[in-house]
TrEMBL record:
<dbReference type="GO" id="GO:0009297">
    <property type="term" value="P:pilus assembly"/>
</dbReference>
<protein>
    <submittedName>
        <fullName>Fimbrial protein</fullName>
    </submittedName>
</protein>
<dbReference type="InterPro" id="IPR037224">
    <property type="entry name" value="PapC_N_sf"/>
</dbReference>
<dbReference type="InterPro" id="IPR018030">
    <property type="entry name" value="Fimbrial_membr_usher_CS"/>
</dbReference>
<dbReference type="GO" id="GO:0015473">
    <property type="term" value="F:fimbrial usher porin activity"/>
</dbReference>
<comment type="similarity">
    <text>Belongs to the fimbrial export usher family.</text>
</comment>
<keyword id="KW-0813">Transport</keyword>
<dbReference type="Pfam" id="PF13953">
    <property type="entry name" value="PapC_C"/>
</dbReference>
<dbReference type="Pfam" id="PF13954">
    <property type="entry name" value="PapC_N"/>
</dbReference>
<feature type="signal peptide">
    <location>
        <begin position="1"/>
        <end position="27"/>
    </location>
</feature>
<dbReference type="GO" id="GO:0009279">
    <property type="term" value="C:cell outer membrane"/>
</dbReference>
<keyword id="KW-1134">Transmembrane beta strand</keyword>
<dbReference type="InterPro" id="IPR025885">
    <property type="entry name" value="PapC_N"/>
</dbReference>
<dbReference type="Pfam" id="PF00577">
    <property type="entry name" value="Usher"/>
</dbReference>
<dbReference type="InterPro" id="IPR025949">
    <property type="entry name" value="PapC-like_C"/>
</dbReference>
<keyword id="KW-0472">Membrane</keyword>
<feature type="domain" description="PapC-like C-terminal">
    <location>
        <begin position="786"/>
        <end position="850"/>
    </location>
</feature>
Length: 864
């Protein structure tokens, strides 16, 4: 026994000596040699370890790595790595890279944004051939951190194609796979006096670039003397993107944009610019930063104390036109850090309103179709609409458009300007000719003014301050579509439906045209004492003293993890009830704040919180409520709340509810009561995806989704997705992907069972609008085997590499020919290699017992 123990210690010392000899030899840049007799008395029992002598600690092959270019994340991708030339790297680099270097070909260089025209000598390399970056591109650097599987490629700025920061080339966008999509939601309530049920179904078909969608709903209600049972088709449309135009085409039922004219429903066609197709640095509005650098310098731009841009510039004049539109306002502080250590500092005042576009950006919107409204009192005239917004130099934006129909025409023209320290504003005028329901003709104009400004030194933000003044004869297309000059819109009913009392939705009176509309949103920060906010709008009419108005003012703050708010609101609608005023107070106290233990946040009690709320209405209605809520289960996918309250009009009130987010959907159950009724309610929502590999159930789908494919890996959690796990076949749907951006899809390896392994658990996808993209994973499902490998009655040499030929399973032989392999298929062929010659490699066929799934199998096999 002591002899065996001593032998193992001697081998461990020999292995340590190997690593030390490699280190010292590398540090001295000299040749190294390690005598394999330290590991075994019989030298032939040790595999060829010469690669360790040259700093090659890892085997060449394909590795899935996170690829970064100039500190910008590009993708998570499988890349082929080859053994590095020992003379081409410093010893420390060889150790960190595992002795490997990536095989980067011309296709990868184009994807990385290299200006291929600047390096005509790259044309001599065939497609797929590895390019030595350091020699082919002066100034290029490659760093591979094997322990983190991170590959950093640094390319000189002068070698790059002039592309906006964050831009993802269109050839990397994924149109997704063909699929049938169903998204459903159902709600129901059963009370002491009535029943109500609602079902909504959004169905779709993805074929290449086309997206077909249909949205329909069924509503049922019954009670004392009334009954409603109706199915309604809400919309049907077909859409696709047009990449060269960075636009989208929609045909069918949709809505117009609201940049210049009010948004309208239509049935027809729309072609419009899509902001999300542009990188973040090209969306919205941001000023062009101009300056002059004396030397090769670095420009740093800060807003509200945060660095929002940093990049190099050459000596001379420069212009930075790809700033991210980070916030609505806040002056930009620019620092030019010269190479000699000196600095230049100046401020560029910056505010924006929705109508501002960055310099050189054009945005258009074209619509043709029938006006479409759910209001039964409106007709469906055919109309066309076109708008154009252009970003001009010096912070100007010019925009305009037209809206034409048989009984209506309107033309708009406006301009916006960044005024620097005075904020930003836009001003436009719309001229309209209208013929109303009584055949009377009217002509009028509407003037709109929008303003935004941030007084950061005072903590004040005017997010939007606007006013629209319309002359007596100005009408919108929505108003011209009314069949009658005035009337109420009631709850929609079918013929023969009984209703105790009609419910008024809205009221219109075309004899009183709109006059003035004011809207505002102002926030005042009080530092550690919370913040105040004011928001509201008011619409006045010609020939009437009535107004539509809504105002809200409030204060919110907190202490430690406690939060509270106090708010007051007032609303008033023409033709309907009197104005309603309401004051409310809310308080939330998390239990972990009372427990005083940071670790309590991860307990069910620590994740709970107590709430209290009260309100007072202008009609004398007073209510108060208290309750508790929180989340349960390991994945925190079960939320609950229990409330108890009192109302001076309804007496005691109470409610209890819980919502569970599962792999195949969400389910909610609830109960509430007051003095007059008891009501039970429920909700169910989920999705179904049909694809080439079968059918997958999911949580409610978003507009753009990701299909996770990990065949055989059941019950595996998807990172950062509450309740999402792979089904029994290894498939799952990750809803709500971000379009035209890198989406990281990762499987939680800690949730895999002991028979499932996966080499690369991270994938990256870039979906287009409405796509179902697939994230492929290759799990290994199988047995665990402690195998003794022999050749001609002798153990396979120490350090030999073992591969399973069908699945690429890798292992290394230890002492006495033993190797541990997991994820083994029931049968297959192993390839064992301990050198480059034919006599230093062998193969063996194996078949595992059927009952070996739940245990580690110990076996011996001989290779030849």
């Amino acid at each position: 026994m002591m002899r065996k123990k001593w032998g193992r210690m001697r081998r461990l010392a020999g292995l340590t000596g190997t690593l030390m000899s490699v280190w010292y030899a590398s540090a001295s840049h000299g040749e190294s040699y390690f005598n394999p007799a330290f590991l075994a008395e019989d030298v032939s029992a040790v595999a060829d370890l010469s690669r360790f002598e040259k700093g090659q600690q890892q085997a060449a092959g394909d590795y899935r790595v996170d690829l970064w270019r100039n500190n910008d994340f590009i993708a998570t991708q499988d890349i082929r790595f080859t053994n590095v030339d020992p003379t081409a790297q410093q010893p420390s680099d060889r150790v960190k890279s595992g002795g490997l270097e990536p095989c980067i070909d011309t296709d990868w260089l184009k994807r990385l944004g290299l200006n291929m025209r600047a390096y005509p000598e790259l044309e001599q390399f065939e497609q797929g051939a590895c390019i030595p970056l350091a020699s082919a591109i002066p100034g290029a650097e490659v760093a591979f951190d094997f322990s983190r599987l991170r590959l950093d490629i640094s390319l000189p700025q002068s070698a790059m194609v002039n592309r906006a920061r964050g831009d993802i080339p269109a050839d990397e966008w994924d149109e997704g796979i063909p699929a049938i999509l169903f998204n459903y939601s159902a709600t129901g309530s059963h009370g002491s006096a009535d029943d109500s049920y609602y079902f909504n179904l959004l169905s779709g078909l993805n074929l290449g670039e086309w997206r077909l969608r249909n949205n329909g709903a069924w509503r049922y209600a019954s009670g004392d003397n009334y009954h409603t049972n109706r199915w309604q088709n809400i919309s049907t449309s077909a859409s696709r993107i047009i990449v060269p135009l960075k636009s989208s085409l929609v045909m069918g039922d949709s809505n117009t944009g609201n940049d210049i004219f009010d948004s309208l429903g239509f049935r027809g066609a729309r072609l419009y610019s899509v902001d999300s197709m542009y990188p973040d640095s090209q969306q919205g509005y941001a000023p062009v930063i101009r300056g002059i650098a004396r030397t090769y310098a670095r420009v740093v731009v800060r807003q509200n104390g945060f660095v929002i841009y940093q990049g190099p510039v050459s000596p001379g004049a420069f212009a930075i036109d790809d700033l991210n539109a980070t916030s609505s306002s806040g002056d930009l502080n620019v620092t030019i850090e010269e190479s000699d250590g000196s600095q230049q500092n100046y401020t560029v005042p910056y505010s924006t309103v929705p109508m501002l576009q960055r310099e050189g950006r054009w945005k258009y919107d074209l619509v043709a179709g029938d006006f479409r409204s759910g209001n039964g009192q409106q007709s469906r005239p055919f109309f066309t609409q076109g708008t154009l917004i252009a970003g001009l130099p010096q912070g100007y934006t010019l925009y305009g458009g037209s809206q034409l129909a048989e009984r209506y025409s309107a033309f708009a023209l406006g301009a916006g300007k960044n005024l620097g320290g005075w904020g930003a504003l836009s001003l436009d005028v719309t001229h309209a000719d209208s013929q109303l329901a009584d055949d009377s003709k009217h002509t009028g104009q509407s003037l709109r003014f929008l303003y935004a400004k941030s007084l950061n030194e005072y903590g004040t933000t005017v997010q939007l301050l606007g006013y629209r003044y319309s002359t007596r004869g100005f009408y919108t297309l929505d108003e011209v579509a009314y069949r009658n000059m005035e009337g109420y819109e009631y709850t929609q009913q079918e013929e023969g439906t009984l209703q105790k009392e009609p419910v008024v939705i809205s009221y219109h009176n075309l004899r009183h045209s709109k006059k003035g509309r004011f809207q505002a949103s102002i926030t005042q920060s009080l530092g550690d004492y919370g913040s105040l906010f004011l928001s509201g709008n008011q619409q006045t009419y010609w020939g009437s003293d009535e107004t539509n108005a809504w105002y809200q003012v409030g204060y919110s703050s907190g202490w430690r993890d406690l939060s509270y708010s106090l708010s007051w609101s007032q609303s008033q609608s023409t033709g309907l009830a009197d104005s309603n005023r309401m004051m409310a107070f809310n308080l939330s106290v998390p239990f972990h704040a009372l427990m005083g233990n940071a670790r309590s946040r991860n307990t069910a009690l620590g994740r709970a919180h107590a709430t209290a709320a009260s309100s007072h209405g202008s009609g004398g209605q007073n209510t108060w409520r208290t309750g508790i809520g929180g989340t349960l289960l390991e994945g925190r996918n079960l939320s609950y709340s229990v409330m108890q309250g009192y109302s001076n009009e309804g007496g005691n009130t109470g409610s209890a509810g819980a919502t569970w987010q599962g792999t195949y959907g969400t389910l909610g159950l609830g109960y509430n009561y007051d003095r007059d009724q008891h009501q039970y309610n429920w909700q169910l929502a989920g999705g179904l995806v049909g694809h080439a590999d079968g059918i997958t159930l999911s949580q409610p789908l978003g507009d753009t989704n990701v299909l996770v494919k990990a065949p055989g890996a059941s019950g595996v959690r998807v990172d950062n997705q509450t309740g999402v796990r792979t089904d029994w076949r290894g498939y799952a749907v990750m809803p709500y992907a971000t379009v035209y951006r890198h989406n990281r899809v990762a499987l939680d390896i800690n949730s895999m069972d002991e028979y499932t392994e996966i080499e690369n658990n991270v994938s990256t996808v870039v979906p287009t609008q409405g796509a179902l993209v697939r994230a492929d994973f290759q799990p290994r499902i199988g047995r665990r085997v402690l195998m003794t490998l022999k050749q001609s009655d002798r153990p396979v040499p120490f350090g030999a590499i073992v591969r399973e030929e069908s699945g690429g399973l890798l292992g290394m032989v230890g002492e006495d020919g033993q190797t541990y392999l997991s994820g083994m298929p029931p049968e297959g062929t192993l390839f064992i290699q301990w050198g480059n010659k034919e006599e230093t490699q062998c193969r063996t066929r194996y078949v595992l017992p059927q009952d070996s799934v739940a245990q580690v199998l110990v076996m011996t096999t001989t290779c030849s």
